[in-house]
Design a protein that fits this description.
With 259 residues, the protein is an alpha/beta fold. It contains 9 helices and 12 strands. The protein has helices spanning 16-26, 43-49, 75-80, 99-108, 128-137, 150-160, 212-219, 228-243, 251-258, and strands at residues 2-8, 31-37, 53-58, 72-73, 85-89, 92-96, 118-122, 142-146, 163-164, 175-178, 201-204, 223-225. The strands form 2 sheets. The protein has a 6-stranded mixed sheet. Strand 7 (118-122), helix 5 and strand 8 form a beta-alpha-beta unit. The chain is globular, with a radius of gyration of 18 Å. 42% of the residues are buried. The mean pLDDT is 96. Bound molecules: 2'-monophosphoadenosine-5'-diphosphate. 2'-monophosphoadenosine-5'-diphosphate binds at residues 60-61, 123-127, 147-149, 152, 180-182.
Length: 259
């Protein structure tokens, strides 16, 4: 039986095992998908000593940590400097990125067209480079980034040709994407004033619970998107990379995340 798992910290909340085990079962693949809580210091040892594992998903906060422990990086992992999918075989540790695909596909699915559009990114954590590359693929004209700690936004802006806005300033945009961790906990509040914004798209990469960022925006008549489909598409792509089968995303699969 082949073994797969997701590493992160915290990891208890991860729905990846439920989703991947469902797909393994549906596709009659002899495999098992588990989760593993790690600390930063243990990541390297874990990757190097776990050659019995065939594939690993990487979640917060290790998407950058694992970069230097991989023996090879795909072009997507290298351009984003972020790894969320690892293929282990014959002593090789290959780092890949399916977050870019996940985010891009979630918007393509809604017929989003980036032409002449401005995107406003909140946050500068590990996932942001993937979001930026996906937005570029979707053809957006301009990307503005804002982060509480400005120098992290500036570093990303330099690498990916973005415009930086001060934290608290609400710029003109067509789509705003919350990439901060604010909203993961109930009653979390970003403290930004979007009250004058109407008929725009508000995207939160957090998929559970429904964030205040989204409920407030919806109340003002904006279109809202949560992180559910991004999560499903990145997982679908990882599964395809490991097993050579593109698993189905249907109502039953979506409901797995709602239980
Ligand atoms: P990492 O930086 O390890 O990749 P992350 O969880 O991906 O971590 O990123 C957390 C993001 O949420 C950061 O952009 C962080 O802002 P800082 O760089 O200023 O820390 C942002 N964030 C977390 N708590 C926040 C808060 N209360 N208000 C605003 N931004 C917050």
């Amino acid at each position: 039986m082949k073994k797969y798992l997701v590493i992160g910290n915290p990891i208890e909340h991860s729905l990846s095992p439920k989703l991947h085990n469902y797909w393994l079962n549906k596709n009659k693949i002899d495999g098992d998908y588990d989760k593993k809580l790690l600390t930063e210091e243990k990541v390297e040892e874990f990757l190097k000593l776990n050659q019995k594992v065939s594939g690993i998903n990487v979640t917060v906060p290790f998407k950058k940590t694992v970069l230097s422990h991989c023996t090879e990086l795909t072009a997507l992992a290298s351009s984003s400097q972020s790894v969320n999918t690892i293929i282990l075989s014959n002593d090789k540790i290959i780092g890949d990125n399916t977050d870019i695909y996940g985010f891009e596909q979630s918007l393509k699915n809604l017929n989003f067209n980036g032409l002449n559009k401005t995107a406003f990114i909140l946050g500068a954590g590990g996932v942001v480079s993937s979001i930026v590359l996906a937005l570029n693929n979707l053809g957006v004209k301009k990307i503005v980034i804002s982060n509480r700690t400005k120098n992290k936004a500036e570093a990303l802006a330099k690498n990916y040709n973005l415009v930086v806005a001060d934290w608290g300033k609400i710029v003109d945009f067509d789509i705003v994407i919350n990439c901060t961790s604010v909203g993961l906990k109930l009653n979390d509040n970003l403290g930004l004033d979007f009250s004058k914004v109407k008929n725009k798209i508000f995207y939160d990469i957090i998929y559970k619970p429904k964030t205040k960022f989204l409920t407030d925006a919806e109340g003002l008549g904006n279109k809202i998107i949560d992180g559910k489909m991004m999560f499903l598409y990145q997982a679908q792509k990882s599964f395809e990379i490991w097993h050579g089968i593109k698993p189905e995303i249907n109502k039953e699969v979506i409901n797995l995340l709602n239980d």
